[in-house]
Structures are given as C-alpha cells and as structure tokens.
Amino acid sequence: MAARRKSLPLARNQELWLLACAVLTLAPDVEHAPTWLAAVAGMALAWRATIWWRRAALPPRWILSFLVVAGSAGVFLTYRQFFGKDPGIALLILFLVLKLLEMGRVRDGLAVVFLCYFLLLTHFLNAQGLDVAGFTLAALVAITAALASLANAGLSATANLRLSALMLAQAAPFMLVLFLLFPRVQGPLWGMPIDAYSGMSGLSDTMSPGSISNLSLSGEIAFRAKFEGELPPKHMLYWRGPVLGFYDGSTWRAGPRQAKVSLPDTAPGPAFRYSVTLEPHNKPWLFVLEMPGSLPPGAILSHEYQVLSKTPVRSRIRYELKSYPELVQGIDEAAASIDSHLRLPANNPRTRALAGQWRRESGDGEAVVHRMLDHIRQERFFYTLTPPLLGENSIDQFLFETRRGFCEHFASAFVFAMRAAGVPARVVTGYQGGERNPVDGYLIVRQSDAHAWAEVWLEGRGWLRIDPTAAVAPNRIEAGLASAVPVGEPLPFIVRADLSWLRQMRFRWEAVTNTWNQWVLGYDPQRQREVLSRLGLREPDWKAMTAIMAVLCGLLLLGLTAWALHKRARHDPTLGAWNRLSRKLARVGLARKDWEGPEDYARRVALARPELGHGLAAIAALYIDLRYGRLSGTEARRKLRRLVADLNIPSRR
Amino acid sequence: MPISPTDEAIRQAGRIVLGKERQIRLALVCILARGHLLIEDLPGVGKTILAHVLAKLLGLNFHRIQCTADMLPADIIGVSIYDRNSGGFQFHPGPIFAQMILVDEINRATPKSQSALLEAMEEHQVTCEGETRVLPDPFFVIATQNPYHQIGTFPLPESQLDRFLMRIEMGYPDRAAERELLAGADRRDMVASLAPCMEPGELIELQRAAREVHVSEALVAYAQAIAEHTRLSPDYETGLSPRAALALLRAARAWALIDHRDLVLPEDIQAVLPAVAGHRLHPASGAPASSSTDLAAALISEVPIP
C-alpha cells in the first residue's frame, strides 16, 4: 500500500499547496539573494504556476539539467566558491525552484517540503527579530499543512491547517524544554563576516560640526535601561560616552586611552542601580550613567571615566551597573593631564580675545565659566538641527556671526573658550535623556538623544559637568529634543510628540520587541543560569542540563502518548477492556487486527488456541452485548474487565 | 426448536442453486431489507434459477420481463384498452404487477423504459394515464445484466444503480458443485416441486423484524468511518453518499436477522459491504485499476473498527 502511494502523482490541490509554500519560503530572500537569482527564481515560479494553471506537461529533463549547470555556475561566479553562508543559501534557492519544475509525484513533493523547511531556517542567519520569527512560524504552519496534504489529498485546506497547527502545538512543549535547557554557548553559533557590521550607527570617537545633528536624525534605538526603583530625574540622565580632549581646529578627538582600574569605594549622594541592553554599534564603549560606581564584568574604566569593553560591541549585550550622579572625579588630576586640556590650535582669534578679556576681568576659573554661560544666555543664540555651514574659524563664526547651532557647536565653542581663558576643559559625548516606555518601564534611549556637553576642571573641585546647551535650550534637557527645536525641523518621525496614538503603538511594539530581545535572543549562558537557579537549580553544568532535558522530553512524550491513548479509549471503558484483551493476546502473536470484528476475532483465536476458545467466547459475547447490544451498567463492565484480567494465557511452544 | 423459515429457505435454495450459499443469503437479505437486487454476470450461471427459487420458497407470485431495445414503458406497466361491453377504458396491468419480478438484461432496455421501471421500484407504485396504482407488497425486483457485452446496450447511469440496494456476481460454480449439477435432476423440475417455507404474511413480518434489529452507537460510528474513509482516501473517485451508508446499515440489520441476532456486529457490515458498496465505488483515475468489488473488500481492511 505504502509503496503504491509513494509513486502517486500529485493532485492539483497538493501542487498548489507546495507552490504556495515555496513562494512563502522564498519571499524574504528577495532582499538578500543576488538580483539575477531572484529573477531566475521568480521566473521559475511563474513558469511552474503556468504549468499548473494550464495543466501542461513538466519541462523535459535536459532543460532542467541545463538549468542546474547554468545556475550553479552563476552561483560560483557570484561568490567565487560554493562554501559559506551566502553561496549555500543561493544554491538551496536554486534547487528549490528547479525541484518545483520537476515536481510531478508525491515523492518530489516531500523533497520540496523538506527543502522549504531548511530554507526557512536560513532566514535566521540574516535577521532574528520578532517579525522574522512571526513570519517563520506562519510559514512553518503552511509548510506542515502542505505535508499534511501530501499524506491525504482529500482533506480541505482548513483541515490541513488545523492538523498542522495541532502537530506544531504538540511540538511546542519540546521546543520550550530544549530552549530552556539546551546548553548555551556565548555569541552566535556561526561566524559573521566583518563587513556585516559596517551599517551600524552610533557615536564615533571624533566630533565636528554636524556629526551629532546628523545622528539625531535617526530614530533608531541606541540602548535600553531598566532601573531598580525610581528613574533619576531628567537632568541627571547624562549617559557618558567618548570623552574628546584634543582639538585640531575643526575636529575634536579622543586622546590615547589609559586604563584606570580603581573605583571609588564610597561616594556621596544617591545611587542608582540599573541594567543596560546595548544595541550593537561596533565600537568598544559602553554607555553608563554619570558617574559609574561599578563595572560590568570584563569592562575597563579609562582615566577619563569612560567604560570600555575589550572588544567592539557587535551583538546586543546586557550589563548591570551602579552609578552615583554626584560623584566628582579628578580632584588629584596629574599636572600633565591638566596641561593637555589647555592645548589649542592657533585659530579663532576673536574667541581667544574675548576669553582672555573675561579671564583678566574676573580672574577666577569659576567666574569665567559663568561669564561664558551668561554670554550664551543673553546673546541671541538659537538651538537648531539645521545650522548654517561654518568655515575655517568655525568657533568665531558661530559665536559672533551665525549664532545658530546644535549641541556640538555649543560644547565645542564652550570648551574652546574655556581653554583660551586658561580653564582646563574637554568635550564629553554620549546621550542625554531618554523616554520611559510606560508599557514595560524600560527607558529607551535613541540615536536622536545623542548629545555633547563639556567638563571643566577647577582647582580643588575636580571635573565638573557644564552643559552649555542647557543655557540656550533648557527644554532639551528637561523634555527632550522634540520640544527644544523649532517647529518644522526635520526630526525623525519616531520622536515627534504630536501623534499620540502612534506613540502608544510604538511603545507597545517596542516593549514586545524588548521582551523578545531580553528573553529569547538574549537568552545566553548567564540568563540561562538565572532562570534555572530561579527554578531551584543552582550552578548546573551541561551534563546536568542534558540529563534534565532528556528526562523532561521523555516525560512529555509519555504525557502526549497517554493523552493520545486516553483520547482513543476515553468514550468507552468497554472498549478499553477489549483493547487490553488484544494487548494480552499480542504476547502470543494473536493481536486483534484493527478491522477485525469481535466474533471473527474470537473465532480466530479459538482456532489457533483451542484451550482459550471457551474463555474468549464468553468475553466476546459480553463485549458484544455491551458495545453493540442494549446491555449497559457498571456491573457488566466490571465483569468484562475481570474476565479479561482473569484470562490465563499459557505460553506454549 | 423449530427451524426458522429463513434457515429453511436458505437450505432449500442451496439444494438447487449449488455452491452459492453466499449469494442466496445476500439475495434473501436484500428482500428482507426491502431493497432490490442487481445481478451482474454471464448468461447461464443460475441467475434466473435463483430468482425462481426465491419466489417459490417465499411464496411470492413471480413475473419475468425480458428487456429489449424496442420495449416501451407500457409493456412493463400495463395499458388501458377500450372495453366495448362496459363502455369505458379498462386497465390491463403489465408484468410489473407481481411480488417478485425478474428483469432480464436490464441494460438492453431503452433509458425511457429503464426509468419507468426504476421509478416503480423506488415509489412502489405506478402512474398510468393519470391514475396511481399501488404495486403489491412485498415487492422485489431482481435485475440482471451482462457486463461483458456492451454493444447495443444502455448502461445504467449511476443514479439508477443507486436504486439497487445490492449488486452481486454469481460466478462459476466450483468443481464439486458443477459435477453435482451436471449429474443431478433437472433444475426446473426441482423448482416446480418446491413448497413455500413461509406463510403469506410471514415475509412482511420478517421485513419488519429486520428494521428493528438493534444498531448501537459504536456500530453507527463504524459505518460512518467507512463512508468517511472513502471520501478522504485518494483511492476512490467519489466517496459513499449518506444514502449508501444508510443502505449499508439496512442490509447489515437484515444480515444480522438471518444470523438470528437482534444486534448488528461489525462483521455484518463487513459481510454486506462488497454487495452494497461495490456498485457505488469507483477507483480513482490515478490508482491502478481494480474491480469495484475488490475495492470494497480492500476498504474493510483499511478502516479500523472504532
């Protein structure tokens, strides 16, 4: 029977199922596959659909052979090899569409189904987001439904989908056990080519006019933070990034890194504990709330109080920290370091002159700082995302002519002026603020929150944070970018404040995405240990986990089997007793065939084992009365059970 | 214990139609289930004798209609002729007015005559010149057709086939039976000497009893599972209709009755399934060709008893 079915030609509805599956599976590849391959695949699918529509014959073998050779050559010419992720996927796509063109029998249909399953998995090599997972799940249901239709062409589409959903639902507990307990390895299982990270955006270690305002046009998420307890007030939300101490006249740069390992034992003021989930940005710095009071494992602290990872951040990472906003550092700064924070190139004469004048008039460093801030407040400065272009003496031009700028203009001019007045100063870049998602309580910090501010060093007081932007646009600090820039500026759509329903939807979506990132994609060895220890399993090694996994899977399998058996015998205890009889007799090779009626069975057994004939006739008679006659009642059922139990089957031979 | 009339009928018929106990039983079951029987086979394998014997044993009056291409519906139903003496039209009933009718070579009749006959079978009445006349009760039709000579015939369409509760094949007798047949007395004489083994009202009583044989829920589930399987499996062109499933239960009840049981077993369904479902099933176009009777027999082994 099975052999006969295997060679059956495909029914039309089966072909349609398979075609639909192939289209669904290949759809996301349009984005990643080479253009020529996408075109070839599209044409092959259209060709196969036409064959289906017109009930035409499949193309002859030689055409397919030619296409295999030509397509493989194309893949080789594109990638110069057959090994690796992309050529592998390209070959799979090619073979799937060609298999469709020779798909005439159920056997070919099975090959198509398994190719689809495999190809579906490869989508995760390109992206692992919630949308990809949702799509994959939908495609999985469809492919399994196609498999169901291959087993039985007569089922309706709904019946196929229902069967598929049921099968996948039964597999779900196993998936959960494997997900939770399968020993994890750090990082992705497959190596990623280096150029995969080129598209990542984020702060760099240089700053020139326009660099941060450009970044502010992006609504992408830079990182998320979850605080234990209350959020700090907005004006404390300074996320420290690269510290830039060198100026060449147009660009600020970071100095050479020197590690500093010591952290303060105690610090004044409130402390905040929080965790940060940092999106990959291909740079080593980790953003921390000023000032860090602890370090994530494996991170180092630079002498400028910047927290650095040992390798560039190329996958989403999560770290836990403690910060003291009122901690002051650098009171005992070395003389050489202070010197280096006074160095300036020889341009911008008007700024120098003004700063020199302030210094002479007030004498004190702190007074100079206040003069400068007053200057920014009182003169007509504008905070804008679209400042005019600046020339060679950019700071002079900004301070005395255009007076329109973004945070980097203000920070840069402020630090320049301080140095010119003999006050050690430096630019600090990072993020300021963030938006609390009311759905899950995470603070979301976007690229549009990128910011630059200044630090000045005062004798006996150490490095102090001065934000000149706060002087010109206090709203930027208190309420965010959207309320600080004039109406009509090209803000990213996502941070605009006027579409509240859109914001609500976005909050919800981002909360879901975050949960997915935290618990599914971010389920690394550490998370696994956390979860398992919460379940009462302390410090499990991979052997223990494998053992537990095997035991749980076994138990699940037992449970599912019991459920299936129970479902079969649920309606009728009489049938249960009858099936027990069959199992009992199966030991002597006399199991009931499932299409065999009770009288026929009793007769067959009596013929094979005459000594059982009498007992079996009684059982069959009672069973017939109970199941097919009008007899009912627990008494009779109990009797049947007893008769079955008491039936003694002597094993002979 | 007195011998039951059905056992006696089967025994008596078995003495004349040799080696065909199964067919005799099925024909009897068909009568008890108030169905009609289609026998498909070559000429000379005992179709006519079987019909004669059954009519005689059950005490039914018997007519025979030999179908030809030039036969008109009136030749079956009857015709009104003007009677000079009474001054009005007088209805002369056709051969259909009998309790048992043998319709020989039904596929030689024109579709028009076929449909007149089959309508009478279904309705148990005929309408002639605006007047409805009730056919006798019990009313039982055995139609025969020769499946091998199709030239000049009008094969019964599927809807007409469905009017027959069962279709059986006679088949050649086995060696021993044939030898006994050749050596024995003339069958016609034997039929003539048969005495009915039941009283006139007894057959109607048995038909009523057959309707009352108990069918449990489990058995209904089995019949349904069989019908469902034919609808879902790719081996069949079309599945069994609900009417076919009902016919299956009706025939199984009668089979249980002649087996002296007041409840139906899965075995009863299996016994009548090839006869009841054989002419209602067709192998799917892609599947290897097999006779529809074989198909029905294979069906049994594919459906587990629930």
List keywords for this structure.
heterodimer; A: 653 residues; alpha+beta; 5-stranded antiparallel beta sheet; 51% helix; 11% strand; disordered N terminus; B: 306 residues; alpha/beta; Rossmann fold; Helicase, Ruva Protein, domain 3; 2 domains; two-stranded antiparallel ribbon; 13 helices; 9 strands; 14% strand
Any overview of this molecule?
The complex is a heterodimer of chains A (653) and B (306). Chain A is elongated. Chain A has a five-stranded antiparallel sheet with strand order 11-7-2-16-15, with no helix packed on it. Chain A has a five-stranded antiparallel sheet with strand order 8-3-14-17-18. Chain A has a three-stranded antiparallel sheet with strand order 1-5-4, with no helix packed on it. Chain A starts with a helix and ends in a 7-residue tail after the last helix. In chain A, 51% of the residues lie in helices and 11% in strands. Chain A folds into three domains: 2-181; 206-500, no CATH class; 572-646, no CATH class. Chain A has 25 helices and 18 strands. Chain B is 45% helix and 14% strand. Chain B contains 13 helices and nine strands. Chain B has helices at 5-16, 21-32, 47-58, 73-77, 111-123, 158-161, 175-183, 187-192, 202-211, 217-232, 242-258, 266-277, 292-302, and strands at 37-40, 62-66, 78-83, 88-93, 100-104, 125-128, 131-134, 140-145, 166-168. In chain B, helix 1 (5-16) packs across helix 2. The longest helix of chain B has 17 residues, at 242-258. The interface between A and B is medium-sized, with 25 and 24 residues.
